[in-house]
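re: ur msg from earlier - yeah i can do the zinc ion complex, just paste it... oh wait u already did. ok heres what im feeding in:
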Amino acid sequence: MKMKTKRMLAVITALCCMAGTVSCGRTLPNSNDDSDSSDNSNEFSVAGDEADGIETSEKEEQLTLVPRTTAAPKSAETVATDTAETSNPVSLVTRSKEEIDKIKNNKKTTAAAKTSKTTKAKTTAASTSSASSTTTTTTTKESAETTTTPQTPTIQLSYTSAEIVAGQTKAYAIVSGTYDEEWSTSDANVATVDQYGNITAVGEGSCKIRVTDKNTKEFGEIAVTVKKMQGIQQIDGITYVDGVLIANKTYALPRSYNPGGLTPETYNAFQSLVQAAANDGYSLWNASGFRSYETQEQIYNNYVYTHGQATADTFSARPGHSEHQTGMAIDVNNPSDSFNGTPEAIWLKEHCVDYGFIIRYPEGKQDITGYKYESWHIRYVGVEMAKKIRDKGIEIGNYNITLEEYFGINSKYN
Ligand SMILES: [Zn+2]
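and the outut:
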């Protein structure tokens, strides 16, 4: 109801703006398009919710820490026997806080009903496990509480095995039941897991991801296999080169790609970067992070309307082509040429690699990246990849090496 009213008001505002009768209440900051044109007067209103940078960044705050999932949650019963669904390496859908709460509430109310089935699954799991199966087949939550270290998994998960491409994150497995969850990995060189259970593939190999109840020490486990991706590959319309997601003028993201905010790894890496800068006496902040396909569409169309397409293409990305849609790009502090050469910009260029970021559109590389120098726009690729790119640049004497040059790919509109 409230949403509807808001949207209608926005539409009315937009119509008024178009007619030129009132000045716009809602405007988009210049920061929204990677434009350096601080002189431009492209303030315009947008018909729709959450279209401007201000609301977007608010949203990021809420969403970046929310665990994400690939598909609608399956019930524990169906998932227990189905491990094939776990092969999709990419998490594209973000749950809203309301959805998460709903899932948690559902789990609470259905936990009791599932007890019999859980026991059955436990029996199966135990009988297939090697040593202590005979004594643990009848393990219940109550008895587990009295045992100091349970031997078999008793926490049920929506998936128990996963194949992930190195560098990608697989959304958390839904835990059947309410526990005081703590997540851990058996090998951080293969895969890491955040406090919400989102798994990030690091390097080739196999490992176990475990969720443990802090109090009862009950646990559940996911067998993770990490594979390396070589060359250019497309999965669900998304382009990866050696496992790195690419969005540039050649490679677009589908409209449906929407992480809902910065990816958790990007968010966390940026927090570390900001902290390190603060320790050195510099203040850095996220001026603009995630932007959806729809938001970029509105921004771009408005620039085309005011400047014409040829000019708009020189400073604003077409929808699907903006790196901000990846949830791995951040405009730091002040997205304009006046940020160039500032102490903060110099610090950022020198240190961002250590936190897994690269200056995505370096100086003098407009013909290669398709964008002029943007000292403020950083892209998360992971520490290992960021260092590989930097080292390659040093090795070949190309200190401003771009992602395009490193991978040997183009960035040109078709
Ligand atoms: Zn940017």
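cool cool. Residues 1-96, 107-147 have pLDDT under 50 and may be disordered. ping me if u need the other ligands too
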